[in-house]
Design brief:
The protein is an alpha/beta fold. It is built from 14 helices and 17 strands. A hairpin with a 5-residue loop joins strand 16 and strand 17.
Length: about 425
């Protein structure tokens, strides 16, 4: 049986709010083993909602989950649109009126007349209670082999209603006897096409499945299995994950919510070593990534944002002659920045970042996207590398890639003794 998500709200189409409800519901469908192939967003318009219902029924979807459009204002049309599509009258439910009245009273207010609209549900629909807001949803089977669930668009209200009522209801209907469990494997330093070519033989599997994703410089492989339990699903996934790790080597850095900063932090903590950073083009972005990890003060001592050359020379000890001869964006300067911050902050490791993030470059020989990274080890050995991210990427993306590549280089050295 397949489910669809239909999010109602012109504000989503205009980009005024991020549609996080679909992501949450998609993850919940997987936990219940419910197949899910389509998501839609539609404005507050009855005719367009009807057209989506037509399409959903034509493709045989048996569960339709609506979010949004359950408020008291004239443009909240979801319930009215669904009822009119199935030619079913709306009936005022006194228990909803009582609930809304109580909630207003608890806030020291009186219920306004327009809130009565939220008490209207199609005849025969079951109330889906809203413990925290005034807009209840419904669970309704208007025709055979079709269940409709509606939720308000407020994510906190929708999630509470889903867990409290919708999940038990769906489980009682037999959903959740099989589940879909997945592991999202994460890779840095390898392109999507290159990784896909290496693991191409795994893409035709049926259970577990392997699918590639790419986003913001990172490549991901989702390994997913359908089974009767999480334990069984993990048993199916484990050998595939192990094979991919063996193929990818150091390009694999973690799974699910693991970040490069977390991996680096764990390695430093295990070795009881400390880190400092010297940043030019990233302007503190590398330090910000490192300190997103709780407990990073165990190993991260601090950083120096050496944006101006005078800071590079007077604070970090960069040789002015090298700056003059090679320019601030050079491996020679990046190396001295890494050693300089390591020395001045007395840490085991130092990282230096200098580059041209754009949108313009003052040096025709050094285009936008040219970034030099350097790493200084506990024994003062220094390694550097130049990245050319391209002139077609924007300033923020180049700064982000620079910070992540700086972390990735340190991760590889900590794990492998070299970059």
């Amino acid at each position: 049986m397949a489910a669809e998500i239909i999010c109602v709200g012109t504000e989503i189409l205009l980009g005024d709010i991020v549609n996080s409800n679909s992501q949450y519901l998609a993850q919940e469908f997987a936990k219940l083993g419910i197949a899910h192939y389509f998501q839609s967003v539609v404005g507050d318009n009855i005719a367009r909602i009807h057209s989506l219902l037509d399409v959903a029924r034509q493709r045989g979807s048996e569960i339709l989950v609506f979010t949004g459009g359950l408020g008291p204002t004239p443009d909240d049309l979801t319930t009215e649109a669904i009822a009119s599509y199935f030619h079913m009258p709306l009936v005022e439910r006194p228990e909803i009126i009582a609930d809304i009245t109580t909630k207003f009273a608890n806030r020291g207010r009186a219920m306004t007349a327009n809130n009565r609209k939220q008490a209207l549900l199609p005849e025969g629909a079951m109330i889906l209670p809203n413990p925290t807001g005034t807009a209840p949803g419904m669970i309704w089977q208007p025709v055979e082999n079709l269940t409709i669930l509606t939720f308000p668009g407020v994510p906190s209200e929708m999630k509470r209603m889903w867990q409290d009522t919708a999940v038990p209801y769906l489980q009682a209907q037999g959903y959740g006897q099989t589940i879909i469990h997945s592991e999202m494997m994460r890779f840095w330093g390898i392109g999507e096409s290159t990784l896909a070519a290496k693991v191409n033989h795994l893409f035709n599997r049926s259970n577990p499945t392997v699918a590639p994703y790419a986003s913001k410089g990172e490549v991901k492989l989702r390994v997913a299995a359908r089974a009767n339990s999480i334990t069984e699903a993990k048993r199916l996934i484990e050998p595939v994950v192990a094979e991919i790790k063996a193929i990818a080597g150091l390009d694999y850095f973690g799974s699910d919510q693991t970040t490069l900063a977390q991996v680096v932090g764990d390695l430093l903590r295990k070795k009881q070593q400390t880190l400092s950073v010297a940043e030019s083009c990233t302007g503190g972005g590398l330090g910000a990534l490192i300190t997103t990890v709780s407990g990073s003060s165990d190993y991260f001592i601090g950083g120096i944002t050496a944006y101006a050359n005078v800071v590079k020379t007077n604070v970090l000890g960069v040789n002015p002659q090298d700056l003059q001869a090679q320019g601030a964006v050079s491996e020679k300067v990046a190396e001295q920045m890494a050693l300089g911050v390591k020395t001045r902050l007395n840490t085991d490791w130092g990282v230096g970042v200098t580059g041209i993030a754009g949108p313009r470059s003052d040096d025709s020989a050094k285009p936008v996207g040219l970034v030099c990274l350097a790493w200084a080890a506990p024994d003062n050995q220094v390694y550097s590398h130049t990245h050319r991210y391209g002139t077609d990427r924007d300033r923020d993306f180049i700064r982000y890639l620079s910070a992540c590549d700086a972390l990735d280089g340190l991760r590889r050295w900590l794990m492998n003794g070299k970059i």
